[in-house]
Amino acid sequence: MKKILFISYDGMTDPLGQSQVIPYLCGLTRYGYRFTILSCDKPGNYESQKEDVFHLLKNYDIQWESIPYHKNPPVLSSILDYYALRRKAEQLHHRNNYDMVHTRPGLPTLVALWMKKKYGCGFLNDVRGFWADERVDGGMWNLNNPVYRVVYHFFKKHEKECLEKADYNTCLTHAAEKEMLKWDHANKTIPGIRVIPCSADLELFHPGKIDTDIRTAFAGKLGITGTGLIISYLGSIGGWYLTAEMMRFCKKVADKIPGVKFLFISPHRHDAIMEAASNYGIPPGQLIITAAKRDEVPVLLSFSDYSLFFIKPCYSKLSSSPTKHGEIMAMGIPVITNSGVGDVKEIVTKYKSGYVVEDFSDASFDAVIDKILAGNNFDKQKIIDGAEEYYSLAKAIDGYCEVYARILS
User: Given 1.10.246.130, 2.40.30.170, 3.30.420.40, 3.40.50.2000, which CATH number is that of 2-199+392-408?
Assistant: First the structure.
């Protein structure tokens, strides 16, 4: 039985850990792999949600080790987290003698490359994003600050080293694959890249499996009457999620469709959502804002006629495969989104599963709103079938299994 150490700087108590780490690894245990997950979890999240994570893992050959995530002081906290991850990874390796380390970008790849050099572990470089560029584009690193500029260039050099020295690479989008192959590799051979998009749990996100009693309870709690247009937004706001542009779009919809409601399914920053809506003149009565546990998200999405997300169309987003896109498609809900983000435009076009704006001008917004007013003519089942074809968790697991076999053979 092959033993794998999976290192994540995202916590398993964060939504991303529960949607884009645990389901993959649980599926891979069926192929005889034994996992240890090493993650950095925010202390508050760990205390409130650790039992949920243990429950998700209890029937699988997966051990979970968590260390605290430190946010402050900037840079120094990351150095502290790196050494804590490396120290814990070394302790775990002495105990378990891992065959391979599977990591996402950033601090975990520093540990994985170190373990490959010191212990000869296999290394899967899972490029879930252009990590350093995401921090710049998301406003976390200001390159006018010389410290952040040094850190940025360090990680860009490290990013290329990982691509070249890993035993294999995966990424989320064809756009990212094309970009990475254009980088100057000084005649070094890249071992290979496989595109495996973010996947949706099609068993969980399935309109036919919605508990009607729970749905009725949510409708009563949130004041959803079952009449009128509902446009949802799923996930966190801020960073490269363009809250202002989405609110401006919502305001233009509200001006033309007075009875519309905007349902925000978001884990936090509800006051910021209210404030942003108020800034654009959207009345509180047209807003529905709620947090949700993962198993409640499909129920809440089921109220949607459309689901909206605008993401900053910047360099780092070439590598982005929004988890929410697969989950929304799996529910048969058409999206309203923008171009310039990974392969999203190509997917929406291929599966006729929504509307894409090329820019954030009034003209582009009005064109989409006119189509909404003309009626929702999307084929719900075809959108679901598209999710099955492109975002299937089972296909993603099979893809990772093939990559694992290539590295470990």
Answer: 3.40.50.2000
